[in-house]
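hey team, just a heads up i'm posting the complex here instead of the shared drive bc the drive is being weird again. everything in one block, sequence lines first with there labels, then the predicted structure for the whole assembly after. its two chains so it's a bit long, scroll down
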Amino acid sequence: MENTQISLRVLPCEHREKDVSMTKIKRETYLWYILSGVIILAPVVGYPLVEFFRLSFSKWVLEESTAYFNSGRNFLEIFRDPLVWNSLKLTAIFTGLALLCEHVLGFGLALLLKRTSLSKILPLYAIPMFFPPLAAVVVWLNMFNPQFGVVNYLLTFFGISPQAWVFSFKLAIPSLIIVDAWQWAPFPMLIFTAGLTTIPQRVYEAARINGASSWYIFRRITLPLIKPFLLISILYRLIYLLTTFDLIAAMTEGGPGDATLTIYYLIWRNTFQFVKVGYGASISLLVLIATIVICTVLINATKSKEA
Amino acid sequence: MQRNSYKKISTILFTVLGVILLLFALFPVYWLVQLSLKIPREALVMPPKWFFIPIVDNYVALVRSGNFTRALLNSLIVMAVPSFLSLVASLPMAYGLSKTSARVVRDNLSFWVLSLRMLPPIVVLIPFYVMFTRAGLMDTVWALIIIYLTVDMPIAVWLLKGFFDDVPYETIAAAKIDGYSEWEIFYKIHVPIIKSGIVVTGMMCAIFNWAEFLFAMTLTDHKALTIPVAIFQYMSFGRINWGLLASAGVLGIVPMLIFMIVIRKHLVRGMTLGVAK
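-- predicted structure starts here --
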């Protein structure tokens, strides 16, 4: 190691591109390294993906453990299934509102902490993110208990009558959003905090000397400079929100009624409870395509902002 | 002067708001811990009992129940084994992807690896469910080890590539001057340089494996169950024993908090797979 550092100093950077024989390892060597990983990844991920596409065009017969090709009849069934349309609506509501709450809370926290000395204890705010989802479910189910829960108890001080929370048709989705925002607002908060540190203090000082108001500074300096970070955060959270399973499976099981039956939980229920494996796979295929489209749009948005 | 007093007031207001939000963030943590220290009769009472004599009976009962010790053991196995295997398998690939000059290979394969991480998990789960059913691997830790590899490897390749990217190219030249062979440049020079990156990567994989619920719940039942599945099963029984549940939850958080403290400086990088550093 010591040798390395000494030689580093005697070798100027300009040699990087010019002296190819010295600074570069043979192309084939790298390709061997890469190939070693591909050889492991391809069967572990590639084969299941092929199998997945085959399944989504098949009917699964439980007794024989075999999938028979049924020429896309699954997709016809999807369009006739009223539960699918209902769950798409619920997924849009849950995902959209949860995304909004997380980011408003996270962005607000990042700005707020930057201004106060609370920034020293920033990691404390991130603790909920490290709750295993099932631990979060345990504590929130206890707190949301309609008769004896502490949430209802605390709300009585504000004159709000006890609510049924996850057991109520109206409040089931808002309850899930509260839990989700509690757990995941730290994610955008951490990303925004990282983003805010990239904005040089001089920019703010220059703006203030020129008499810009706080709101103007926020809109014209902070927001545009933080935009790439905002898009990254939205992209990640959107993908995970679309595939929220733990919260719904353990807190509401899609209920009451179908009030929290999101598309992802519907797929799981169809595939593993009703053992309609082929049908489940074909709904997942549509979700997969939707995810790819959303990602592409958001990634392109990131790129155009950078340019 | 006016500007200063305005600033002071707003700072005070922001601090108050920040403290309220801190209470919101931490209250459930406190609530879970105090639940685990209460006798079941006190767990659900209105108004809540704020002052009580803490007991550790719940933890004792939890450890004594064979189910939970098995879950704890399984959780530790499926946390460590796939993380370690994917680190070993990913290091060469990440190094190759980071240092190669073949741009087509680098960009396309890197994107492919990242997109694997973005797949909805159920897309991977369904075919594996079919394969494990056929192979008789349902309700075994092998099933979980294999399926966690499909998630851990993309995380590992992508994060490690980022750490290798940070090592300057001059290192290779320097090592060559010192007479290292190409293989030695990889494992004697680069791997030690990114040591802390390897730790971060391994822990990100471990965090995922430890908290994962969808795969574990679908592929295991009573033999290979992990802690999240055990908690889920405790909840499904008729009368909920809150003390037992809460103490299982507390034990589930401990490793996560340890990891978080160890990798706190690389948290953002790890969570976003290196997109934001």
